[in-house]
Design brief:
The protein has 430 residues and is an alpha/beta fold. It contains twelve helices and 13 strands. The N and C termini lie far apart (63 Å).
Length: 430
């Protein structure tokens, strides 16, 4: 398959021109360029021409989208731009899972949009409870396709504009549903109009920051580039775009690479289950181990993996999450298996239940976020109004938002995540 960005960067490097343009390294990293003649411009490209526009058009055809825009700012930028597109189309209030990524909250605040929270059936789950009453008053819906534990949502057409956070599920487009089932679908396979923001760098062989903003049929993408420029850097990385461009060719030439990786992880899951390692259901490129049933916290299990030469994606009080990718090999899985099995197990412990967070709201988030603040110990913050997004990362999911009143459950949840201080609104005279 044609790789227009890669081809241009190779030609430009071979010409060995004197680089009297940015960036300042002047060719020390030869493929890291700026918008020189012929290099196109990310925020001005379209699908009709230019090396970036052509590459985006190829990506759209691969993913089954009507239009695809590249992001060099990860899913964060894609979510921000997607929300801005909805705002430009008249959306003032969006219904979203309480455990959405912080990018949603920050973008909503900057756009002066209101959020109506939908509450999941359990902590951090993507499977929110939503019905006509739950989304009443909302102009659009924000859904997380794959959560950090590897769960997903029920695929129902909500009959309203939809923005999907598919940060962890770009690879789902390429898996064989006859082999791995249909519990996990790529947004472009859902069959109704939507916008999908998704990372390439999380599960595909793409540099950090590489992501997509996909538009399905029936969605107006006219102002997509304008909205991406509003939030994105005016100096997007050509190295990131090159890696996105290169993946188009990789997957076109070897679509089976994703299935091979998923098969290797599936076999690993089966071997770990046979060895008595407790796991919760997760998507095909993730393993979520219940560390408590192994006699320790997720943090302690992660420490054990680290001692055995493996770094996990995330750990918390209950679970440890291992993320694989489209280029995971059988050898990678064998090494992961040994690391897991050599973590010393102990007497099972009960899973810690996180408190339900339903704080009262004192003022809109977009108003509270820009008021004067002060920092204070978490345990003394009861009754205070939150002044900043409090989101341990990973997973980057906020526990409390600006404008909400900090109550006992919020304090307990923050403490359980190791948060020592919290930002609150400054009172008069304080």
């Amino acid at each position: 398959m044609n790789t227009p960005i890669c081809n241009f960067l190779e030609r430009y490097t071979d010409e060995n021109k004197l680089r009297l343009h940015m960036p300042g390294h002047k060719g020390e990293f030869p493929h890291d360029i700026t918008e020189v003649h012929g290099a196109d411009s990310l925020y001005r490209s379209d699908m009709s021409g230019g090396i970036i526009g052509t590459s985006e058009s190829l990506a759209a055809s691969i993913f089954g989208a009507k239009r695809t825009c590249y992001s060099c700012g990860g899913s964060t930028l894609a979510i921000q731009a997607g929300l801005a597109v909805l705002k430009a189309q008249g959306c003032e209030t969006i219904a979203a899972s309480r455990y959405s990524h912080r990018a949603l909250a920050s973008a909503a605040a900057l756009l002066r949009m209101n959020i109506k929270w939908l509450y999941p059936r359990e902590y951090m789950s993507a499977d929110v409870v939503y019905n006509a009453e739950a989304v009443s008053g909302a102009d659009a819906l924000f859904i997380t396709n794959v959560d950090y534990y590897g769960g997903t949502w029920k695929f129902v057409n909500p009959k309203m504009p939809v923005l999907i956070d598919n940060a962890h599920g770009a690879y789902l487009k390429f898996i064989d549903k006859n082999v791995f089932g249909t519990d996990y679908l790529h947004p472009m396979e859902l069959g109704f109009p939507l916008i999908s923001a998704e990372s390439a760098h999380k599960t595909l062989p793409v540099l950090t920051g590489g992501a997509y903003l996909h538009f399905a049929d029936g969605v107006d993408s006219t102002r997509a580039k304008e909205m991406m420029a509003a939030f994105g850097s005016s100096s997007p990385s050509y190295l990131v775009m090159e890696s996105l461009d290169r993946f188009n060719s990789m997957i076109a030439e070897n679509v089976q690479m994703v299935n091979n990786a998923c098969e290797a992880v599936t076999m690993l899951k089966e071997r770990l289950a046979g060895a008595g390692i407790p796991m919760r259901k997760s998507d095909p490129l993730r393993i979520t181990i219940n560390a408590r049933e192994c006699g320790m916290s997720g943090y302690e299990f992660a420490s054990g993996l680290r001692a055995n030469g493996v770094e996990c994606e995330m750990a918390d009080e209950n679970f440890v999450v291992l993320m694989f990718s489209a280029v995971t090999s059988m050898e990678d899985c064998e090494r992961a298996e040994m690391a897991v099995l050599f973590v010393p197990m102990s007497v099972p412990q009960p899973v810690i239940k996180f408190p339900e967070i339903h704080p009262a709201v004192d003022m809109p988030m977009w108003e509270a976020m820009f008021k004067p603040t002060r920092t204070m110990p978490v345990e003394h913050a009861g009754g205070e109004i939150c002044g900043a997004i409090e989101a341990p990362c990973p997973p980057g999911v906020p526990l409390i938002f600006p404008g909400e009143i900090i109550d006992h459950n919020v304090i307990e949840a923050l403490k359980m995540h190791g948060v020592k201080t919290v930002t609150v609104l400054r009172k008069s005279g304080v």
